[in-house]
Amino acid sequence: xxxxxxxxxxxxxxxxxxLVRDMAAQELPAAHWAxxxxxxxxIADALAxxxxxxxxxxx
Length: 59
Fold this sequence. Notes:
about 65% helix; 3 helices; mainly alpha; elongated
């Protein structure tokens, strides 16, 4: 069976994980954590749906 379409690569996953780690290490004002939450949810959704283009759109 061949699955067509874009697929998230290991490199994509490593980059997404590093982005999450970098965001978690930030000392941000409380108001900015909503943006971090939105970005992490976008990353999680892209990984769950195997949609690499959405990773490049992550704020």
